[in-house]
Amino acid sequence: MYRWRHLWRPLVAFGSALLTLSMFILFALWLAPTFADKWLANSGVTDWHIKVGQISAEQLVIDELQLTYQQDTTPSNTSDTHELTISDVVNYKLPSWLPTQIVINQLEVTVKNIDSVEQIVGGLRIDTREEPVITVSLKRPANATLEVSRHAQRIRATLSHAIINAQFNYDAAIGGFDVNARALLTTEHVNRWSRGYITQSLPVLALVNGRLPATTPVSDPLALLRQVNADTKIQLDEQLAIKHPKLAATVLGSATFAVDSGMLNHYRLDLSGLLTPTKDIPMELGDIDWQLQSSDRLAVDILMPSKALQKTRWPLVVNVNAGKNSDDIDKLSVKLNGSIRQQAGQFLATEFPNTDIRYDRVQLPQFSEKQPKITTTEGYFNADIGFGGGKAELKLNNAFSSHLTTKMLSFDADIGNFNAIIDTSKPLSSSIDFSLNISDINVNKRLFADFNNIYDPVLSQRVSYNDRHATIDGDIVFGDGISVSHNTQIDENLQLSSTISTNVESLAASSTQRRLKPILSQFAPLLTLSNGNIQTQAVMHADLKTSDWGVTDGKLTIKDVDGIYDTLAIADLDIDANFSLTPANLSLTQASLELGSIQQGFSVGPMGANFTAQIPLGDIAGSQVTLQQHRIRAFGGNITLPNQSYQLSQDLPIPIVFERLNLGELMRQYPTDKIAIDGEVSGTIPLRWNSEQLTVERGYVNAVAPGGKLQVDSSALRSAVGGNPSLQTLASVLENFYYQELASVIDYDENGDLTLGLELTGYNPAVENGRTVKLNITLQEDLPALIQGLQLSNSVSDVIRQRIQQRVN
User: Fold this and answer.
1) Per-residue pLDDT, 799
2) Is the pTM of this model over 0.90?
3) Beta pairing partners, 599
4) Do residues 738 and 712 make contact, with C-beta atoms less than 8 angstroms apart?
């Protein structure tokens, strides 16, 4: 602006002198050169040269005119106080004796003391008719044609250039003017300016409507511009296409400026377009419509537009709509209303408080083939968003709620207290923190029918991410009886470590029973749990890149559990065990078991054991159990078996040793009033397990001295034997038989048949003076049927009774 401000004065001088140029030329032909030099020197012309081609009443042709102008910085001493105004120029009367046309074929003006402007070279034609027209054909500093015409008090100027074409109209009567201009930036310039992202020419329209009083002096450009009041609009005349490696975009837009008395006091910028991301983005955004608007007051001198950079905050409104032609998004809208902060032309930050984001449906991106597809619907949140210093900040102002759906399940998610600071150059070094609550979970009915109504799970999580490390703390609560707590860490290599605690408060609670029933029905239909509590704690490790996982440092605690498996009832079960788990194997170490009783026909217990176990999950029958220590109480005595490793998939000989079992205690569990016996027995039963069933071959049990007493109700035997004296004697002996010796041989085959061979030596003091009697008795029994009968006769649970009756019937 400085350069052209100092060029204005010689141009004005030339303009006013040019209209009387013909008179000067005519005089110069016969006046002394000294007088001509003096006349031109008053206008600042120091050197001049003219070559006249033709002179007539109709036409003056000057082949060549050269002028050198020296800027005069000293104030003028002229006594003429009248300043040339726009009105003077518009109303200037050309002398009637001027030729109809004045032509200067070659005009060269050299201006000194003006930065970067050395010469103005071109041609000039003046038509001096009633409505004069001036046409300037410039070659330097640019190729252009300027045509200025006057009609009454109206001035019309037309500029033609390779880049710009413009038309100017001014009405001195009202002081109004307008400008209509179109600039076309070449493809080469635009491509270089855009670093190759734009490969087309850039057409720009400029429309100006304003007022400039005709009384304004034209000699001082500063004073002239400060009288301007105008509204200016600059807009793209065609859609601009931008092609970037990560997106394609089209842009249309305009900028308007309001100038009052030479002050730029208001502006408005409007841009809109279409964005189409490339396939590099992990989700299909489709076509993105966007609009951008910025408007504000400025109060900047039009002569010093750079001072607009002193304004540090520029308001900005952005609207974005996505989802058109997208399979992943339906109706996503973003509304931002904030500002950009800058200093001396350098970007500092953007701030968008209370940004609204809404969508009907969004399918979240998949970063691996193993990640399930997640769709979220009907989401809305309001957030404060900012960018600056290479970081983006996002803070939620409301609890974000949405419904998410996958192929396997659907659920409601609430995100609150969300704060994120994202490093735009290193996104993985960002910081994110928020709370996450998940509820109303519905699982595919093929997996779990009515999942939410039965389990009613609620997930409450706190998620933190900082510099490639993620931490997730939270609880999963199933109603009021079952809960899972965890602390999960994920490092920069996508290695997961999670400490997990599980608590089942009371198996007796009806809510817990209702939640366990579908699981047990699916995976262990013969198992029923009715009392006690269960706690576990473990550390899970997983490689999220390969999906490999394992569980270590596991601790299992089971307390006071009562339950039934098939027709076997257990009571007061306590288990403490350390465990580890892989997809292939469950390992139990330092395991201890305490059991109040186990009952299947007969009740055995209490018992306890210390053991370890290796359980292949693909073949549980192939498990290995190592018994380290144990104790079993049964019928007033003890039962022991070897402390050793047992491979359940192999044939196992298991010698079971009975010590001082009380036969009276045994018979008290046998529901009959026909037989009574006391005494103790000890022995060994060689139990054999062949991975499917148990058998016994030649087990031995003997009475412990001094023996015992057997009493049998012989009334039925007496009736059966009739008059046989030997059998009548046997019946009498059994009614009160004292035995000193009792030996038995026990066999049990794969068909469930129990064979018991008994040898008893003793006497009945009331029979034959207590003569010693030896009895050999062989008993055969279907042991499973006997046990079922005993269970039905004894007090058992309704579950066991129902299962036995179903099998009997």
Assistant:
1) 59
2) no
3) 569, 603
4) no
Q: Which two tokens stand for residue 390?
A: 């290479």
Contact 135, 124 (CB under 8 A): yes
Q: Which residues contact 373 (CB under 8 A, 6 or more apart)?
A: 363, 364, 366, 406, 407
The amino acid occupying position 808 is V
Closest CA relative to residue 342, chosen from 404, 388, 288: 388
Task: Write 526-530 long-range contacts (CB < 8 A, 24+).
Answer: 526/565, 526/566, 527/563, 527/564, 527/565, 528/563, 528/564, 528/565, 528/799, 529/561, 529/562, 529/563, 530/562, 530/563, 530/564
Place of tokens 């490793």: 645
Burial class of 104 by CB neighbour count within 10 A (0 to 12, 13 to 18, 19+):
buried
Residue with tokens 């049964």: 634
What length is written for the chain? 809
650, two tokens: 């192999």
| pLDDT classification of 24: cutoffs 50, 70, 90 | very low
3-class state of residue 169 by DSSP:
strand
CA angle, 206 then 261 then 9, to 5° = 80
User: What are the DSSP E strand ranges found in 648-693?
Assistant: 652-662, 675-677, 680-689
What residues contact residue 494 under an 8 Å CB cut-off, 6+ apart?
543, 544, 545
Q: CB within 8 A of 402, min separation 6: which ones?
A: 376, 377, 378, 379, 412, 413
User: Are residues 796 and 788 in contact, defined by beta-carbon separation less than 8 angstroms?
Assistant: no
Q: What is the per-residue pLDDT across 191-232, written as a single tens digit (0 to 9) for each?
A: 888 888 888 888 999 999 999 999 888 877 777 888 899 999
